[in-house]
Amino acid sequence: VFEIKRVRKTFKNLMILREMDDTCFPEDSYAPLGLRKYSWWFVYDENNKAVAYAVGCSKKDKSYFLARAGVLPEQRGQNIQQILINERVNMAKSLGLKNVITYTSINNPPSIKNLKKCGFVEWVDAPNYWKTENFISWILNIGN
Ligand SMILES: CC(C)(COP(=O)(O)OP(=O)(O)OC[C@H]1O[C@@H](n2cnc3c(N)ncnc32)[C@H](O)[C@@H]1OP(=O)(O)O)[C@@H](O)C(=O)NCCC(=O)NCCS
Fold first, then answer.
1. Of 18, 26, 92, which is closest to residue 50 (Cα–Cα)?
2. Among the four residues 47, 72, 81, 125, which has the most C-beta atoms within 10 Å?
3. Alpha carbon of 109 to ligand 1 centroid (Å)
4. Which atom of ligand 1 is found nearest the CA of 72?
5. If you measure from the C-alpha of residue 60 to the centroid of ligand 1, how many angstroms do you get, rounded to a whole number?
6. DSSP 95-123
């Protein structure tokens, strides 16, 4: 019943993205998800309403960065984050990249569980600038 699409970076989609992001990260300060480097994905329900989103970008070192994801509260518990993770992993593979990286708060059990289910492991060799207190770094090698 859910459909994932990589969406165009129109003003209308930016407003939809911002609204979902405000709902999913009410405590966070503004995240500049509109930056040119980012790609956006939305997951739509059967009424064509966007109920989840993800943002990612490729980096100069041949890795792909999962920058952000959220599922609206009423649609959680249906593995939608895993769809969003796998879609971006496939994008990274199609770009011929080496790995996919991200981080989570230690207080985010659903994200940690979903990343592990998608094959991610703790990135113990993460560079120091990447390490932040109360966050865990994750990596998935995709060959190449
Ligand atoms: C993180 C988020 C995207 C996950 O949404 P989702 O895809 O619906 O994930 P689910 O709710 O299905 O949870 C995934 C798993 O974590 C489990 N889980 C949920 N809350 C949990 C908790 N407090 N403790 C332990 N496990 C928990 C679920 O049972 C599920 O496991 P299962 O598939 O084995 O049953 C969603 O909660 C969200 O948008 N949160 C706010 C924004 C956010 O944190 N984004 C990610 C930042 S990295």
1. 18
2. 81
3. 6
4. 39
5. 30
6. TT-SEEEEEEETT-HHHHHHHHHTT-EE-
Mutate to test the pocket of ligand 1, among 4, 20, 24 (most ligand atoms within 8 A of CB): 24
At 61, the amino acid letter reads D
Per-residue pLDDT of the chain (144 residues; tens, 9 = 90+): 899 999 999 999 999 999 999 999 999 888 899 999 999 999 999 999 999 999 999 999 999 999 999 999 999 999 999 999 999 999 999 999 999 999 999 999 999 999 999 999 999 999 988 888 999 999 999 985
- Measured CA to CA, the distance from residue 51 to residue 9 in angstroms comes to 17
- Whole-model pTM? 0.95
The set of protein residues with a Cβ atom below 6 angstroms from ligand 1 is 24-25, 69-71, 76-81, 104, 108-111, 113-114
Amino acid at 109: P
* Nearest one of 103, 142, 98 to 119, comparing CA atoms: 142
Mutate to test the pocket of ligand 1, among 81, 82, 106, 108 (most ligand atoms within 8 A of CB): 81
